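User: Show me an example of a complex going from sequences to structure tokens.

Assistant: Sure. Here are the input components:
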Amino acid sequence: MSTAAVAPAATSTLAPFAKETKYEFLRLLRARSFSVATIGFPLSFYLLFGIVVSSAEPGGLDRSKYLLATYSVFGLVGSSLFGLCSTIANERAQGWLELKQASPMPPAAYLLSKLLTAIAFGVIIFGLLLLCGETMGHVHFTAAQILRLLGTVVLGVFPFATMGILLACVVPPNAAIGFVNLIYLPMSFLSGLWIPLEGLPKWLRTLAPVWPTWHLGQLAVHSIGYTMSWSVAGHVAWLTVFSIACLGLALVLFRRSAQKA
Amino acid sequence: MSTMESSHTVNVAPAELRAVTHRYGSHTALQGLSLQLKPGEVVALLGPNGAGKTTAVKLMLGLLQPTSGTVSIFGGSPSQRATRQRIGAMLQVARVPETLAAGEYLDLFRSYYPHPLPTAEIVQFAGLQGIEKRQFKDLSGGQKQRMLFALALCGDPDLVFLDEPTLGMDIETRHNLWRQVRSLADRGKTVLLTTHYLEEADTLADRILVIARGKVIAQGTPSEIKSRAGGRKIRCVTTLADSELQQIAGVRRVGRTGAGVTLTVENAEDVLRTLLARDAGLHSLEVTSPALEDAFLELTRDPGSPATEAA
């Protein structure tokens, strides 16, 4: 190409990663069905259960603090599951993923952009919850607590991103959002992310350790000073095994359907 | 658009399939398919649904691996990123994520290539002027297709795959795209297109490959393919019986339509002399050359089905 012979390489190796992430974030932010739901759900639930209801009860401040941590988890789980499962399932069904696979896009850029986008939304939700908690709920966290909670939010995206990838391989693409809601909402409730588990029947409390959301929720409340029944290492190990299992199974399913396609 | 003149394109085939067989479970989509694309030619892949066109394209794009045989693109594997950076593809995409603008998609796809074309050049070439800032959901059907076409050109590729590129386009947009495809070839690009519009293959292609039941059953220029259909057709009204007509040398097939008869013949002039000599009252005479459509139907007809004339 005559112009390229004199011009330096127009794009760097990092460019596709940066552009992919920028546009993945932008398009989900603009898609109101995504942004309003993933940000709106945790925010409105927190305002209701964490601030309005809590302010009328004794020990309400404590509850506002506790729920700020669990609704941050609820938020990041939503942005991870919707940001990976429904986008991948749709893009696969509609041929868009195939066009990208045929292009010279680095395959890692595709997943990484979605992961970083999920983290970005998780952090935005956490920031908004913190703002509401501090201003309306009179919650006060130390800088160390905020940093630990932020770290939990960022790292917590990984297990649910892998779960999202796995779900993308199994749910019917047209109904991906419905299926995700069907798993996401009950699982969050049963893990004590909406209201503390103490208010639920005992058998539901004993069942809690089967939900990945419970493990991350425990780590989140621990990071702001609450005690947990398991050790930090125990929860982290559980979530790590869970992530690896999801990713491994997704890989098997993806390969199998790629051969059939 | 500036032309790409890489030294390594000279002797290496842009795409080559050698004895490629592809099976999905027990279904054989391609059976011992061999084909080669030469630099700078426009090749049309024609075939009925399920013939294996899409499978062949997916193999050349590295989206599928052959069960046996080899696929090479510019002498390398189609799954390598370096190979893909010399390729552009327009595939059938039911829906593109809708909340990005056409210009943003160009920006994204340009970032995948080491030497992308300038955005303004792509916009002008694909006819996207004035709609770069419009989100995908606000584009018309033809504009969406044009954007997908533009994405295939972002990297200034040497080899362009177009899978049913004019599907859903109105006539004017379709003719514009044909002009663009021709000018790609004029710039030395190799273009492989699949289509079910025979007119498209006839107008655009330097060479047509007809695929049926997983094999190339015919290839050549559009006029060669047409002559492959076994000559011309004679229509007339005659008193001669079918059995008599069948016995005339050069008649391959006899079909009836109302009062008239249609003969598929190898040598129209000789057959006509015989016909006119035997039936002085013969009238409503018409001699036609086969259209590509006839050739296509002829070539791809299932050998099991009867050879009667569909008039």
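The lines above are the inputs; the final block is the predicted structure for all two components together. The CA atoms of residues 53 and 60 of chain A lie 8 Å apart.
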